[in-house]
Amino acid sequence: MHFHGYELSPVIFDEDIQKRVHEIAKKLSEKFKDEVPILIGILNGSFIFMADLIRALDIDCEMDFIKLASYKGSQSTGTVRLLKDISADITDRHVVIVEDIIDSGLTIKFIKDRMEDAGPKSITIITLLLKPDVAILDFPIDIVGFEIAPEFVVGYGLDYDQKMRHLPAIYRIEKE
Ligand code: IMP
Ligand code: MG
Fold this sequence. Notes:
The chain is 22% helix and 38% strand. By secondary structure, it is an alpha/beta fold. It has one domain: Rossmann fold (3-Layer(aba) Sandwich). Inosinic acid binds next to strand 4, strand 6, helix 3 and strand 9.
């Protein structure tokens, strides 16, 4: 499809994302039956995934957000910077990290280490998308929505220079 001067091809359709988000919500609801986990969304990318995920949960939950920067355009800078920390006290809490996409693995590693320092009861990591061919991870990701090829994607929260986050499906950019 054409979108403001870009040619986009669908990678994951809206309906398939919604179906998977509901499956993930079911898993989480079963895992934390009778508990109230705190979901930590990584801004900005995960806000749409987080919004859909929490509304599909059967359990109660709390949520907070953390904001990092590691990307410029479509190129990773290789460093992670904390822009906004969580406000909640996560000591002795069941923490669920909600990420949009794991590319190099740098961001998720930074967040996991930071959360661990606060002494939570447990940490569960969820990512909607994972690029297994490029991600370097020395710990398991508990729930992966979809594995994708190592290509740059946009939509469903994911941006290209802060744009295209609001597209309901996930697309690759074919050309400008
Ligand atoms: P990592 O630290 O390299 O794993 O990158 C993670 C962060 O980079 C994600 O939270 C996204 O914000 C961003 N990112 C990585 N790959 C993509 C992509 O294909 N499209 C849009 N953003 C991406
Ligand atoms: Mg992100």
